[in-house]
Amino acid sequence: MAFARDMLRMYLSAPENVASPWFNPQVADLLEKHYGLPQDRYREEKALSNRFVLERMDRIREKIAMAADPVYAGLQFAILGNYLDFSALQGQVSFEALEEMLNKAKDFAVDRAVYDRFCADLETGKTLLYLTDNAGEIGFDRLFAEAIAEKYPHLTITFCVRGAITINDATRADAEAVGIPFKVIDNGNRVPGTQLDLLSDEAKAALEGADVILAKGMANVETMFGCGYNVYYAFLVKCQRFVTLFEKPLMTPMLVPERK
User: Fold this and answer.
1) Range of the domain at 79
2) Is residue 26 assigned to a domain?
């Protein structure tokens, strides 16, 4: 009952119209307080996810380089990596299944018109801000960003991770674990996604100064959609709400522009 009361107080005191990721840190605190669940309870899964992609990085990089369009191939693998979500896909994430998915990455198709707009923006822009999502997935993001840097060497690329441990999301430690070769900043908080009013000064400046923003995962859609920045959201549809919102089946790869 004490947990339920604290949850009710949290919901009643929340600002109006906040997205569900806003509640995650408070819920994590209450689970630790009442049930002793540690904040880093996904530590093992995160380490295994990072190790999985590191062991396959050279092979995946070669596949991307050999593709007719390496940037598109990199995007396919980056969206595939969004499968590594131990929160949204509780009990359903399997490294064996992910291994099979690697062989089918070339079948991941996104809206080509949106992709062409994304590439056109990369061509004319000077800065790309890459908003990451999960540990392990960030290794796939590295390969995608490397493909972008190869084709658009004029771009300055910055990676943004979470400011503290939250579920299995990527932090600075995960960026270091997978060897991100670009500048890495954090968002200054532990809300999954990009909660604009909680961003660190550094993250806010990077967001406002970016010509193009690539935002990975559903939580970034929930926290940012409607923000008006030049954002391209890349993710897998992994819950019924997104099935309804985008009218797509579960596990559909998506590239969605903020600006129509």
Assistant:
1) 43-257
2) no
171: left (phi over 0), alpha (psi -120 to 50) or beta: beta
> What total number of domains does the chain contain?
1
Q: What is the pLDDT along the chain (260 residues), one digit of tens a residue?
A: 787 787 778 777 778 888 888 888 887 777 777 888 888 999 999 999 999 999 999 999 999 999 999 999 999 999 999 999 887 777 788 999 999 999 989 999 999 999 999 999 999 999 999 999 999 999 999 999 999 999 999 999 999 999 999 999 999 999 999 999 999 999 999 999 999 999 999 999 999 999 999 999 999 999 999 999 999 999 999 999 999 989 999 999 999 999 88
d(CA 82, CA 223): 17
With respect to residue 27, please indicate whether it lies within any of the assigned structural domains: no
CATH code: domain of residue 81:
3.40.50.10880
Report if residue 126 sits inside a domain. Answer: yes
